[in-house]
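Hi R.,

Here's the chain you asked about this morning:
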Amino acid sequence: MVKKEVVVIASVLKPVDDTRMYEKMARSLASTGKFCVNILGFFSNTHSEHRDILFHPIFHFKRNHYRRLFANLTFLKAVKKLSPGVIIVSTPELGPAVILYRWFHPGVTLLYDVQENHLYNLRYHHGRHQWLRKCMAKMVGQLEKLLAQKSHCLLVAEKGYFQEMPWLSALPSFLLENKVLRPQAILKPKQLNSPPLSVVYTGTISAAYGIWDALRFVEQLHQQLGKKLSFHLVGHVTQQQTFQMLTQYLRQHPWMQATISEQPVPHQVLINAIEQADVGMVPHQLLPSIVHCFPTRIWEYMAHGIPFFLQQHNPWVDYCRPWYCAIPIDFSQQTWAMESITYTLEQEDFYSRGIPETIYWDKKGFLSIMNDLSEKDHSETTH
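And here is the predicted structure, written out as tokens:
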């Protein structure tokens, strides 16, 4: 029996069943029969369904809890027991532990998964404690560059990161966008004729991702359609203040359905909501931390063949236009022409060219990178 290579995929705040870490990376690796994958991440009350994928929910605290200061020690203790040959890490704050571990185990292959622009997030997604966030941004920036320089390869989730972080281009990297997994059966686009209409907002819930603009829009759509409209809000609310405000708002609008949590919501819950919906929403604000990114929920809505209201931003609109899948909306407006919008929903022949192949996760490319690094590492070890 061939010994399987031990892989660790790690993040501090992403749950162990995070769709990128588990459904995409870990399952892709496990499908080859060559790897045993261990996911070290935030607590989630789920279990892996694959024998070669193990969950290690070693982090369980609020975002600003003092226990987060000991994340590196917690990670180091866990990874020493696993003795991995490959470490994929997506959180710069784990940099000290990862680099220290590699100091004593130089044969370990390290990949930094650049899922976010952490500096931009610190600068633009929070309004409070700006002086503290500037200090944190400097520290995170230094840790991130050190981690990237020590990595054999960078996995970059967004094309726009090469523009926002020019130093990435000087290092070995592979663009691995957050596209959707290919379904077992090809889904057919939904046909919209006339109300009733089910609208859904899925994914991360925050002011930056346009939650308050989305709710204003849905309120006005409800005034137009009345009981013919239903709305479902599903996702993870990243800030406690937003969660409290949102909870109060929903009490005043009992016709809205909500599945929200201050903890990450299982990805399958989001997918179930999309499958039951007629129309999605992508109301992201055009902040510097967002304009160069591509919202994953666009690909998720496209994969299920549902049209969606899309923030008017040329790169996103241009991508969607050939597939007749989106209705561009300026979500920064105070009012909208709802009669025209509902008419478009009823008359537009959405997805008349079908669902494009360009929306699917690059499993082949990811496995090619992993196999190349594994073979290179084995070659260097034998010589």
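One quick note: The longest helix spans residues 130-150.

Cheers,
M.
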